Automatic annotation (TrEMBL):
Keywords for this protein: ATP-binding, Cell membrane, Hydrolase, Membrane, Metal-binding, Nucleotide-binding, Translocase, Transmembrane, Transmembrane helix
Source organism phylogeny: Bacteria, Pseudomonadati, Pseudomonadota, Alphaproteobacteria, Rhodospirillales
Pfam families: E1-E2_ATPase (PF00122), Hydrolase (PF00702)
Name of the protein: P-type Zn(2+) transporter
Keyword hit for Zinc: no
Length: 704
């Protein structure tokens, strides 16, 4: 019966280039196993994916037309035998049954009558021997051969306990490896493909629900709050906040409206969008990333490759040793024990299992590890470098003081002025200021285009005068604003452990905002555990003031700190330490740390915070952009149509911001840096090409 065809009949019912749908009839004896049919179909030459519906007796195949065609596939399927299917289903079984059987044999054999012990033990060892024969044919002498020899010799000597123990241990090892591999694969699917099966699309003005697999390019997909966006595309209507952490690593939600690009796999937090689908199914960015992670999970780590090599190198030595001991002592039992004591298979087995289970555990704790290599590098790291804001501290700051040096500005006015220019940015300081403004009269100051200078602050023009908000370095050294008059106040605030923001207006220091950050509750314990785990050096690199860095380093017992750094300074320090042989793990919050992350041995990005955009204004849905509606206060905001200020556009907007045009020239290396590295601002993580391309396509479509 094993050569009975699995399918009674196979007929092609629908053809498309690279895709066919088949109708089949199962042989009455064949098991109802759609998954097995899919798996078997996937083994055929040229088949890319297979989807079976056993109840509808339909099988959809996607294939490479260069390699095969529909008729050839139908014929190949008709030729499948029950044996083929059985082999395939056996492989999808995780080996639990084999373990149970081996255990039963191990425990029960000695109770059997003498005559039965050999056949029972032999039967239990058969899969191993069978497997080894196949492996020997393919790979020559490997550790499998040793295992099989150990079992065979024990069987030949009627040492059934030894034979059965080996069989059982090998089955157990295989089962453990399979089940851990499957658990981590399930987890990955959960992490990366949380998309639901059903999707709403707009058909002739009516919203209808269709299976996710049937969404086509050009459909208008409707996505509501709390759901994962199923396609890559461009927003046609609506406004929403989208958390793109799964795709860009940036945890700050971004506002998406008409014309903006959205990515599959990202989460709609609030709002509702109609999206023009441009990439669907396996071509979406989410599917590609999932593939990437799956690949890196299966890609062997260096340790795995080393272990496998070592194991196979040990084989001839062990064989010689076994032969020698048999010759010298004249006892085959000694040879068997040498073979059994061969740990090469344990070496091979233990490494992938250890890596996969570590990745699985990390995943459950909310940590996505990009492959075994990353874990290996982390294990070998001896120098841990942290940035400050949002990493060792919570990054959720409160404005504690607002001090103005101009009598016509109240403390609240100062906060609102700073908030007016900061409101489009997601830097922790910007978010704090905007938040503080909400608790005041929240007046919006009209201003010109805002420039963002990485690791410095922001600048704009209000009533014809240049306004700058940022670090002391930015305001004093780059903008040439004299702050010496107010040094006593500044010193006092620093002594109170506060982070300061300087606000310059018309070339003068208008005021200072003091902010208080708090150390993360878990930081001290984390540092202590790193030390216990053998970290040699723990450093702090920050863009903030020296006093802040010193306080924090003292509080947490860090070895070294460097303060008032530009992102490229951080990268320089890391490069220097690496040259001196340090193996560096860099831990940042993902804001402005791309250069540093790139130079480290291994990078860790924390995404603990979940911020809403500072302000959710309503843009008209559909039609033209009207100047944005103001929240409170009077006057008209002049920074033009709002969408030009959206994060995704900021790269283009600020690439030639005419720095220094309105105010004092900012003429030193930092400006060049700000422009050069502009794309590294987290809000611009999406490659500009990715953001631009769909928009062009979308316009082309619309104008047709
Ligand atoms: N949007 C902004 N608004 C105001 N000031 C800013 C802004 N972005 C950066 N700055 C100023 O530039 C300094 C350096 O910024 P950067 O982001 O490099 O480091 P940081 O905020 O100190 O965090 P970390 O400790 O993680 O390096 C900040 O301390 C702040 O004074
Ligand atoms: Zn500078």
């Amino acid at each position: 019966m094993s050569n009975t065809p699995w399918l009674g009949s196979v007929a092609v019912v629908h053809r498309l280039p690279g895709r066919i749908r088949l109708r089949y009839r199962r042989h009455p004896d064949a098991p109802a196993h759609g998954a097995a049919l899919e798996a078997a179909a996937c083994l055929l030459d040229g088949v890319e994916t297979a989807r079976a519906n056993d109840r509808a007796r339909s099988l959809v195949l996607h294939f490479d037309p260069a390699l095969t065609d529909g008729d050839r596939l139908a014929a190949a399927l008709a030729g499948l035998t029950l044996d083929d299917i059985a082999a395939k289903t056996a492989r999808t079984d995780d080996g639990r049954a084999a373990v149970a059987a081996a255990l039963a044999v191990l425990l029960g054999t000695n109770a059997l009558p003498m005559g039965l012990r050999l056949p029972v033990s032999l039967h239990a060892a058969l899969p191993l021997l069978h497997h080894t024969a196949a492996d020997y044919g393919k790979n020559g002498i490997t550790s499998h051969v040793l295992e099989a020899m150990a079992v065979s010799i024990s069987l030949a000597r009627s040492d059934f306990t030894a034979a059965n123990t080996t069989t059982f241990m090998l089955a157990l090892g295989e089962y453990m490896e399979n089940s851990i591999a499957r658990r981590s694969d399930d987890l990955l699917k959960h992490l990366l493909r949380p998309t639901s099966d059903q999707v709403w699309v707009l058909k002739d003005g009516v919203e209808v629900q269709i299976p996710a697999t049937e969404v086509a390019v050009g459909d208008t997909v409707i996505v509501g709050a709390g759901t994962v966006i199923p396609v890559d595309g461009t927003v046609l209507v609506g406004e929403a906040t989208v958390n793109e952490a799964a795709m860009t690593g940036e945890s700050v939600a971004v506002v998406k409206g008409r014309g903006d690009a959205v990515l599959s796999g990202t989460l709609m937090e609030e709002g509702r969008l109609g999206i023009y689908a441009e990439q669907v199914g396996s071509r979406t960015a989410a599917a590609r990333i999932a593939d990437y992670v799956e690949q890196s999970l299966t890609a062997k780590s260096e340790a795995q490759i080393e272990a496998a090599k070592l194991a196979d190198q040990l084989v001839p030595t062990v064989l010689k040793l076994a032969g020698a001991s048999a010759l010298v002592t004249g006892n085959w039992r000694n040879a068997a024990s040498v073979l059994q004591a061969d740990y090469s298979c344990a070496l091979k087995l233990a490494t992938p299992v250890a890596f996969k289970s570590a990745m699985f555990d990390a995943g459950r704790a909310g940590i996505l590890v990009k492959g075994a290599t990353a874990l290996e590098r982390l294990a070998s790291a001896d120098t841990f470098i942290f940035d400050k804001t949002g990493t060792l501290t919570t990054g959720m700051l409160d404005v504690t003081d607002s001090i103005t040096f101009d009598a016509s500005f109240s403390a609240d006015d100062l906060i609102c002025l700073a908030a007016s220019v900061e409101e489009h940015y997601f830097h922790p300081l910007a978010l704090a200021v905007v938040n503080a403004a909400k608790a005041t009269h929240n007046h919006h100051f009209d201003h010109a285009e805002v420039q963002f200078i990485v690791a410095h602050g922001v600048a704009s023009v209000i009533d014809g005068k240049r306004v700058v908000v940022g670090s002391r370095h930015f305001v004093q050294e780059d903008e040439g604003i004299d702050i010496s008059l107010h040094q006593p106040v500044i010193d006092r605030l620093y002594q109170q452990g506060k982070t300061l923001l300087f606000i310059g207006y018309g070339g003068k220091l208008l005021g200072i905002l003091a902010l208080k950050d708090s150390i993360r509750a878990t930081s001290a314990e984390t540092i202590a555990r790193l030390r216990r785990a053998g970290a040699k050096r723990i450093l702090l690199l920050t863009g903030d003031h020296r006093d802040r860095a010193a306080d924090l380093a003292a509080a947490l017992g860090l070895d070294v700190f460097h303060a008032e750094l530009m992102p490229e300074d951080k990268a320089d320090i890391i490069a220097r330490l690496s040259r001196d042989g340090a193996r560096i793990a860099f831990i940042g919050d993902g804001i402005n740390d791309a250069p540093a992350l790139a130079g480290a041995h291994v990078g860790i990005a924390m995404q603990g915070r979940r911020h809403r955009p500072p302000d959710r204004r309503h843009r008209p849905v559909g039609g033209q952009h009207r100047p944005r509606r103001r929240r409170q206060g009077t006057g008209q905001c002049r920074h033009g149509p709002h969408r030009r200020q959206l994060p995704s556009d900021r790269g283009a907007e600020h690439r030639h911001p005419g720095l220094g045009g309105a105010g004092p020239a900012v003429a030193h290396r930092h400006r060049a840096f700000a422009q050069r590295h502009h794309h590294r601002h987290p809000a611009q993580r999406l490659a500009p090409t990715d953001a631009d391309r769909p928009l062009e396509r979308f316009h082309a479509e619309r104008n047709r």
